[in-house]
Write a structure and sequence with these properties.
Elements: H1 4-30, H2 37-47, H3 55-62, H4 66-79, E1 82-85, E2 94-97, H5 101-131, H6 137-165, H7 168-179
Antiparallel strand pairs: 1-2
Helix pairs in contact: 1-2, 2-4, 3-4, 5-6
Length: 180
């Protein structure tokens, strides 16, 4: 029979292995959300720890440079996914991640809209405006395609705005009705 300390050590090792796997996979998913691997890994690590971490902690755990850690933490703060916290008696900066999954999803959706959807809508609207009076069959087809794309992206953007402004419970109820 193993002792409590052996069980605790085994659990600690298993937790570290599971966290490392999650951080690695979350990092791989980052590019699909429009963020780089290191930024996603920092976010994953901060989401899965119980206490705020310093830049030094991030550097050590993820084996990254100070500059890489610093620039990615700044970007995560700009996204609203990480915040700086004050730890009493400490001079270093500490960071913690938003842990509410619904809030994370809302934040990512809002930021992706601002960074990707809004610029695309601007281009589509500009193309629609420029091509409105064109007469050739090719130009008219272009205008029609741009108008349809602009309508669809605008609709999708409005739906995303509505969903991201909903409270978690209401969104789940609505999704259940739509999928049921």
């Amino acid at each position: 029979m193993s002792s409590k300390s052996e069980q605790a050590n085994a659990e600690k090792a298993a937790l570290k292995a599971a966290r490392d796997e999650f951080v690695s996979q979350w990092g791989a998913l980052g590019s699909q959300w429009g963020i780089n691997r290191t930024m996603a890994q920092i976010h994953a690590l901060l989401m899965t720890v119980n206490q705020p971490l310093t830049t030094d902690d991030l550097m050590e755990e993820l084996e990254i440079s100070r500059g890489n850690a610093h620039s990615n933490v700044k970007e995560l703060i700009a996204w609203g996914l990480v915040r700086t916290v004050v730890v009493r008696g400490e001079r270093k900066e500490f960071f913690e991640a938003e842990k509410d999954v619904w809030e994370i999803a809302r934040t990512v959706a809002r930021e992706r809209k601002r960074r990707e959807i809004e610029p695309a809508l601007g281009v589509l609207r500009d193309c629609v405006d420029k091509s409105r009076q064109w007469e050739s069959p090719e130009a008219k087809a272009f205008h029609q395609q741009m108008r349809q794309l602009e309508e669809f992206v605008s609709f999708a953007s409005k739906v995303a705005d509505q969903v991201s402004s909903m409270k978690h419970g209401f969104a789940i109820q609505l999704a259940a009705k739509l999928l049921g």
